[in-house]
Amino acid sequence: MTEGIMDVKWTIKGKEFVNCNCAYGCPCQFNALPTRGFCETVGGFQIDSGFHGETRLDGLNFVGIFHWPGPIHEGKGEGAAVVDARATPKQREALLRIMRGQDTEPGATVFQVFSTTVEKLHPPIFAPIEFEVDVDQRKARLVVPGVTEGRGEPIVNPVTGQQHRARIDLPHGFEYSLAEIGRGWTSASSPIKMNLSDTHGQFANIHLSQSGIVR
User: Fold this and answer.
1) Is residue 116 part of a domain?
2) Residue 52 and residue 98 in contact, taking contact as beta carbons nearer than 8 Å
3) Strand, helix or coil at 64?
4) Which domain holds residue 111?
5) CA 45 vs CA 158, 168, 201: distances in Å
6) How many domains does the chain have?
7) Is residue 185 part of a domain?
8) 125-129 — which CB contacts under 8 Å span 24+ positions?
9) Residue 176 counted as domain residue
10) How far apart are the first and last CA of the chain?
């Protein structure tokens, strides 16, 4: 097991908005290869309530920025973590440990899984994070000044112009149990550059712990 798991328990409950470069639905969710042969993504996370050991994490946000030259499972990825500027030193360390997959059972969370595929991890960024997300409405706004800016919207039926609703249900997932699927636009300038336009967006309520999804 990952070092420290027997000593520190943690949980975070909140919401996420993730925008990646693949087509709506994201092949990763179905064990398929990425739409364009490589993967890059920005994900925003809002903690409504949570803790890491004795450290409370309520009300904080964090962001993950990733790029892989091929499918995620082939590794050689690049990652960067952005932690809410409002976090105290203890909260910063707690969030970074969660994001790096520490204090977590192997394969239990998306953070721990991604950590095994990243070979270049940029120094953490501590900055203000503007994050608004409405899971049911499939809408989101994520801004880290000088780092990344993005938004999420519902998919629109090209014939009727009406909003189209689709969901992904993963009974054995390691990130969420049920996600609303939409689309997103994201630009990132530092430390990983990308420009996503009208690509896969997912909106989900999350409840994770050192042992995976809390059901």
Assistant:
1) yes
2) yes
3) strand
4) 10-213
5) 30, 18, 13
6) 1
7) yes
8) 125/80, 125/81, 125/82, 125/83, 125/191, 126/82, 126/83, 126/84, 126/85, 126/87, 126/92, 127/82, 127/83, 127/85, 128/84, 128/85, 128/86, 129/44, 129/61, 129/62, 129/63, 129/82, 129/84, 129/85
9) yes
10) 22
Please identify which residue in the block is written with the tokens 């977590």. 104
| Helix or strand holding residue 99 (H, E) | helix 89-99
155 in helix, strand or coil? strand
Where is 98: in which H helix or E strand?
A: helix 89-99
Q: Is residue 62 part of a domain?
A: yes
- For residue 145, the cross-strand partners are none
Q: What is the pLDDT along the chain (215 residues), one digit of tens a residue?
A: 344 445 799 999 999 999 999 999 999 999 999 999 999 999 999 999 999 999 999 999 999 999 999 999 999 999 999 999 999 999 999 999 999 999 999 999 999 999 999 999 999 999 999 999 999 999 999 999 999 999 999 999 999 999 999 999 999 999 999 999 999 999 999 999 999 999 999 999 999 999 999 99
Bridge partners, residue 105, by sequence: none
CA atoms in the 13 A half-sphere facing the CB of 139: 4
In contact, 68 and 74? CB cutoff 8 Å: yes
User: Beta-strand (E) ranges in the chain?
Assistant: 10-20, 39-52, 55-56, 61-68, 77-84, 118-121, 125-127, 130-134, 139-144, 148-153, 155-156, 163-164, 166-169, 178-188, 194-209, 212-213
